[in-house]
Amino acid sequence: MYRELEKIKEEGLKALLEIKDEKELENWRVKYFGKKGELQKLIINLKSTPKNERPKKGREINQLKNNFLDNFKNKKQEISNKSSQTKWVDPTLPSILPPIGHLHPMTLTINEIISIFEPLGYQRVSHPEIETDYFAFEALNMPKDHPARDEWETFFVNDNIVLTPHTSSGQVREMRKRKIPPIRMLNISRCYRRQQDVSHTPVFHQFEGLFIDEDVSIADLKGTLEYFTIRFFGEDRKTRIRPYHFQFTEPSFEVDISCEVCSGRGCKLCKNIGWLELGGAGMVHPNVLKAGGINYLKYKGFAFGWGVERILMMKTKINDIRLIYQNDIRFLEQF
Length: 335
Ligand code: DAH
What we know:
Blueprint: H1 3-18, H2 22-33, H3 38-46, H4 54-85, H5 105-117, E1 123-125, E2 130-132, H6 133-136, E3 155-156, E4 161-163, H7 170-178, E5 183-192, E6 203-213, H8 218-233, E7 239-244, E8 249-258, E9 275-284, H9 286-291, E10 300-307, H10 308-316, H11 329-332
Parallel strand pairs: 1-5
Antiparallel strand pairs: 2-4, 3-4, 5-6, 6-10, 7-8, 8-9, 9-10
């Protein structure tokens, strides 16, 4: 290695070793690699050296250049490592939150139902999902072989045990447990039926209200249903009750809510009726009160039972019940 080059190498590496920050490093880079830098000067000088020495010197300049480049990169890395280690950290800053989920729309709906009925004194209860034929049917005025049972498309475990097809099976259980009215029950539970299409799944949820006291009338039932629909669906919705038949209520009704799209004038959604069907209700049949051990001459009651998925779908315009249970994050994120 010729002398001049050796000198530059020695000086350059020594200077690099002492560098402490990015600014000094940049000055170093300009000094050696800049347009008028030391390496460039060596290349220019090359022209004035005898021809036969040029290739050797050229090679040596190149080696020095590579050597400087490697050392420069190492130094740069060293400085950046040091600066990230000494970065100031404020431990009081809120941390970056991991993605957090939320309650399932069904749980949100159930919580909302509870919050609407609780102020009226209704107590949320649970009764068995694997139920006896007695509480699911017989106690509800549907003796064995009664044709009305057909509507419930029931899963039988054996002759006497069923997967409860509705929350009404909790009515007589609750009466027997409480014994003395007033009784205000809100039974929310999974129910099971042999059914499957865009608006039915084999496992679904119902919420059942039962109110028993002296002097309970249809007006109380209507007021309660109206209170619920206004709270759940909004101020501008109307309800109506329409005669129907259930074995366990007399009289029985179907409850409708005014169509939100046409406000009752008639449209495609409500099939030009102006009303959408919510579910069943009625005044508790004396035979049911009797089965529950309640003095049916002194006390009266009303009951209603609606589908949780159904009201969720009506409120949010979900058009296929199966979406609720597919656990697709894109669907769930919307709630
Ligand atoms: N249990 C009925 C069903 O699943 C709904 C029902 C109708 C519940 C009338 C009631 C009622 O409490 O009074 O279709």
